[in-house]
Design brief:
With 381 residues, this protein is α/β, with parallel strands linked by helices. It contains 16 helices and 17 strands. The longest helix has 19 residues.
């Protein structure tokens, strides 16, 4: 039985220039309709799995969940606790933006059991924040962290983005130094990717913004990993670094191919070999659930080929690497035999190391892990 749960809150106060996630502008009336729909979805989906299941991790993301009112928060958490047990050791994370954090909201979240906050700082350079379309400034990040600590929330993650327009080595070092100075337990460092029809992509295509080239971004990634390592933030996944004992258990469950429940528009769950994806459409989501029907979406039966593909791709994201003996036992795929020459080439190019049955990507290899994984997978996938 899955011990992780994700809840998608699609509301944002404004739409960032680079973000391609499903999100909509926050509206108080729509929030009430959404909260009612969400609680209905949880009840409907959990009817097929009755009983209160113990959660190891609960992650409420978005969007900007910290925008929700107290009424919505209490309603949503009550619906979750009706179906799941949240206990003292449960990792209960919410995503928050600096401008939406205040004493009243944090006191409410702490009272509801939230013990981990993922704070979307993105940068500590105000010019870069403006380019990204963020509505907070660097001072608000520091103030938000101060408030989070004052409320006794002891597990904090800070999100940063690198590879920004006009970025220099000095600016990235400044961002890392400012984040570390706030002493978070966890740091996520993501390379800027411009997917879909986002405004920043149009600016880059027109030449109004200039991104650093891929070789420069790769070199900065390698330098950043080392910078964080020297300051006791150990890398455990491509973009994630933590102090001892503070890895994100929720995301590790994803990368380890664990099952998980998920609710909300655009949410994706995986249970007993079946993946269910809700359509990213809040109108259809609310309309369906208001009449007691599950929202529209897709259901996929995960066959052995799909599971093998995901095992390779997700395991190689982790610094602990890919256990090839598992591939032989579960899928009958002998990577050391099938990809022997490629493995030797990648080892010689310092993209990976071979340690017994484990394949581990180096920092250089992690930067292009998807490309490497695609070549290591069997031809039929």
């Amino acid at each position: 039985m899955a011990s992780s749960c994700y809840v998608h809150i699609p509301f944002c106060q404004s739409i960032c220039n680079y973000c391609d996630f499903y999100r909509v502008i926050h509206n108080s009336d729509r929030e009430k309709e959404f909260a009612a729909a969400l609680t209905t979805e949880i009840k409907l989906r959990m009817r097929i799995s009755p009983g209160r299941h113990k959660l190891e991790s609960l992650y409420i993301g978005g969007g900007t969940p910290s925008l929700l009112s107290e009424e919505s928060w209490r309603r949503i958490v009550t619906s979750i606790t009706d179906c799941f047990v949240i206990y003292k050791e449960t990792e209960f994370t919410i995503e928050a933006n600096p401008e939406s954090v205040n004493e009243t909201k944090l006191a409410l979240l702490a009272d509801l059991g939230v013990n981990r906050i993922s704070l979307g700082a993105q940068s500590f350079d105000d010019a870069n924040l403006k380019k990204l379309g963020r509505i907070h400034d660097s001072r608000q990040v520091s103030r938000a962290v101060e408030l989070i600590r004052d409320m006794g929330i002891e597990n904090l993650s800070i999100d940063l983005i690198f590879g920004l327009p006009g970025e220099t080595d000095k600016l990235l070092c400044h961002d890392l130094a400012q984040a570390i100075a706030l002493e978070p337990e966890h740091i996520s460092l993501y390379a800027l990717t411009l997917e879909g029809d986002v405004p920043m992509r149009s600016e880059v295509v027109k030449g109004d913004l200039l991104l650093p080239d891929d070789d420069t971004v790769a070199a900065r990634y390698i330098d950043a990993v080392e910078y964080l390592r020297k300051r006791d933030y150990a890398q455990y996944e491509i973009s994630n670094f933590s102090r001892s004992g503070r890895k994100c258990r929720h995301n590790l469950n994803y990368w380890s191919l664990g099952d998980y429940h998920a609710f909300g528009p655009a949410a994706v769950s995986t249970l007993d070999g079946v993946r269910v994806k809700n359509d990213p459409d809040i109108e259809a989501y609310i309309d369906s659930l208001s009449v007691g029907e599950l929202p529209p979406g897709d259901e996929e039966q995960l066959d052995q080929g799909k599971r093998l593909l995901e095992t390779v791709f997700l395991s190689l994201r982790l610094t602990r690497g890919l256990d090839t003996s598992l591939l032989k036992e579960k899928f009958g795929y002998d990577m050391h035999r099938k990809r022997r020459e490629l493995l030797i080439q990648l080892q010689e190019s310092d993209d990976l190391t071979l340690e017994g049955e484990y394949i581990r990507l180096t920092t250089k290899g992690l930067y292009r892990s998807d490309l490497i994984a695609s070549h290591l997978c069997p031809d039929f996938v």
